[in-house]
Amino acid sequence: MMSCPKCGMSLSQYYSKYKDSVNASQFISVFKKGSIREVFPGQYLDVTPERIEADAHRGIKAAQTAKKLLLNREYNKDEKR
Known about the structure:
Blueprint: H1 11-18, H2 24-31, H3 49-57, H4 61-71
Helix pairs in contact: 3-4
């Protein structure tokens, strides 16, 4: 199970606790492979995951992509392909 190197929280705990205060770029730095920045919608890098979820729910395609990249385990730093 992946955990934050600073606080020891799992990805799901960290996401739940900080989704309204940490931006996507910070979340990516802690838990996700850096390569997702190449395809991550730039307009959402400085936005909180909570806002991304809200926009994705409203049907905004870029937000849906951002949400998928943040939540899909395939893009976790420790996932093996």
